[in-house]
Amino acid sequence: MTPGGPLPEPILVPLDGSSNAERALRPAKVLADAFGCPLRVVHVLSGEAAANPEEKARATSVFTTYVRRLAARRHLDENSIQVGVLGGAPADAILEEAHRARMIVLASHGRGGFRAAILGSIADRVVRGAEKPVLLVRGTRAEHGPVAIRRAVVCLDGSEQAERGLEFARELTARAGVSLVLLRTFSAPRQVTGEDFLYYRPKALTPQLEEAARTYLQTHARPGETVEAVEGAPAETIAQVAKDQQADAIIVTTRGMGLARRLILGSVTDKVIRSAKLPVFIIPAAAEEA
């Protein structure tokens, strides 16, 4: 921080006391180090307790002690961690706090239960409403060794909105040396026939579609970035390419071609979030587009 300048926006990590939620801490610390900003760890107090000053003071004391012990166990500098207790509905309180953060890192399974889907969970509501990038970590995944993001798949669909994910990815490259794989999936439309003849054969279009997808990627790629134009169902193809490329994360946007503002359920983004075994960065549309 420049003397006299503003404090850097923190990486926001919501915790609920569960070991699953705590799994967001390690990747959050990696990002905080890369971006040169502090961690802000928060707990949400809901119900009548949130409106009671004594209850909130007691919760703050308990949560602060918990975070200190957690930092010691995970070899984190507690002086670099800001602690806060918020009041209100969990998702709403987190989203309000996120206005003062650089990004949100949260696990997909806290006390609310997540399993394979985000429908109805706090994580879902945060991802839907966030105006800052969100890193969603699989809370059920066991931790082995240091967490590092060395390679990421960036999902593009030809829209300017989806390219916001590429802007964010390149910031990761500049700050943390992350190598990028630019991916565009494509598929031929279904076969169309008349009563007496075939209008076209879908497979005949594959070479042209692949060439168009690859040309788009090559036009946008920078030296050192890998490009992949792959035919197939988008969500499944993204997962397979991430595996083949030995990626550590996937970067998607909440609004690409044909997606309504903040509409995740039923979209490719939602399917990737639900099925991916890797951490997923979800980049929101620009405020002026949202």
In words, what does this structure look like?
The chain is of the alpha/beta class and 290 residues long. The chain has two domains: 11-137, Rossmann fold (3-Layer(aba) Sandwich); 151-275, Rossmann fold. It has helices spanning 19-22, 25-35, 53-73, 90-98, 122-129, 163-176, 202-220, 234-244, 268-275; strands spanning 11-14, 39-45, 81-87, 103-107, 134-137, 151-155, 179-186, 192-193, 198-200, 226-231, 249-253, 280-283. It has a ten-stranded mixed sheet with strand order 3-2-1-4-5-12-11-6-7-10, sandwiched between helices. The protein has a two-stranded antiparallel sheet with strand order 8-9. β6, α6 and β7 (179-186) form a beta-alpha-beta unit. α8 (234-244) crosses α9. It is elongated.
Descriptive labels:
alpha/beta, elongated, 290 residues, Rossmann fold, two-stranded antiparallel sheet, 21% strand, 36% helix, 2 domains
